[in-house]
Design goal:
Chains A, B: This is Crp/Fnr family transcriptional regulator. 2 copies of one chain form a homodimer. The first copy, chain A, is an alpha+beta fold. Chain A is built from 7 helices and 11 strands. Chain A has a 4-stranded antiparallel sheet. In chain A, strand 4 and strand 5 form a beta hairpin. In chain A, helix 4 packs antiparallel against helix 5, helix 5 crosses helix 6 and helix 6 packs across helix 7. At the A-B interface, helix 2 and helix 4 of A face helix 2 and helix 4 of B. Chain B binds a DNA duplex through helix 7.
Chain lengths: 198, 198
DNA sequence: TATTCTTTATGACCGAAACCATAAGAATCG
DNA sequence: CGATTCTTATGGTTTCGGTCATAAAGAATA
């Protein structure tokens, strides 16, 4: 889901900034002034809780994040943190809006991406609503499975139980227990503790 | 949050259709072929559960719904049902896309609206994640309070406890009990059983 | 006005997930 | 390579929201 070619970004004055592992790109409740697009590394979008975080999204090469506040003019509803060393394209708001105005094709692709994110969050909210931990876990796994480059028949889940807990709003122990149960039911497979989904 | 002027819709070949109270506009998993904009009445977007529904959104005069699947080409993730008698503008997908292409201003306003919806769902997911029923209820109430025409200092919640339950994924009894508790805590006020939020 | 149906309310009981403690294997780092 | 941290695992206890039953007040309908 690559968004904007780097050549176009540069043309509008973007710069490629480095962020160290653990560094924040922006904080919750900050006003939005820049467009961000990951060139290298991974970024985590999350809400910090007292005990656990809630992960709203994970972004890597070619993906942009934090644009809705830029477009609609509100403050960030979540934090963005580099979870590895990163190189990120940074473009000023006014330049980004100009880029969108000048390139209807890019604008339409962006709209399309927002539509897909909305679809994902709608499905997620529905899954969360059911209150059923197992359904939550499978919904999250299937989301990343569908998002994965190849629609592999066999998807190796690249997350720890803790990460799944952070995305589903459950506790680690619950995820551990439910994953074992899902494996026993045949919904998942466990290869040396790695979760695999068919 | 009016989306597209009816004159423009008509110009692109939209027709004003009637839907009776209780009638479905579309069903979950249907492919999307039309743009819908409410002229009169109210529409409920929801996922049906075995016991309870989960309400994804409520739409009335001037609001459009069900566009993301149209833009990104996937199937509806929820059902849409008229909860009163309705008049709804209906425009064929191809004509809608043409309208967007011809009117960059309308396109940008649409993108902005998707951004706002995404913001709302992000906050909602965070609230749901906390697992705290009281926070869920307040998040929903505040959403509609902010959405309300006037930023009234005193917002009278226009929903039954059952409706709040359907939007938060809680049970009626839980909502009833928690609302009483929130009133005792001073977060809400109860005027003759009507919920009021300051 | 009488009769439903809906909405709000309340209390008892139950079960599932949180919480807590502990531990062992795996990975990371100095 | 040893030490430390992270991850997976397991079992016991607690808590909170779901479930069920019941009832009364209000709204809608005949």
């Amino acid at each position: 889901m690559t968004v904007i070619p780097s050549s176009l970004l540069q043309q509008y004055g973007a710069s490629l900034n480095r962020f160290a592992k653990g560094e924040y790109v922006f904080h919750e409740s900050w006003p939005a002034h820049f467009y961000f697009q990951v060139e290298e590394g991974s970024v985590k979008l999350f809400n910090a809780g007292e005990n656990n975080d809630y992960i709203q999204g994970l972004f890597s090469h070619g993906e942009s994040f934090g644009e809705p506040p830029l477009i609609a003019g509100f403050c960030y509803p979540a934090n963005a943190k580099a979870i590895t060393n990163c190189k990120i394209w940074v473009l000023k708001k006014a330049d980004y809006l100009r880029l969108l105005r000048d390139n209807p094709g890019v604008h339409f692709e962006f709209t399309k991406m927002l539509a897909i994110r909305l679809f994902h969050k709608t499905k997620l909210l529905n899954a969360m609503n059911t209150q059923n931990p197992e359904k939550r876990i499978l919904t999250i796994i299937d989301y990343f499975k569908d998002k994965a480059p190849r629609a592999t028949p066999c998807y190796e889940v690249p997350f720890t139980r803790q990460a799944i807990a952070d995305m589903t709003g459950l506790r680690v122990e619950t995820v551990i227990k439910k994953v074992l149960r899902l494996a026993a039911l045949g919904e998942l497979e466990l290869l040396d503790h790695k979760i695999v989904r068919h």
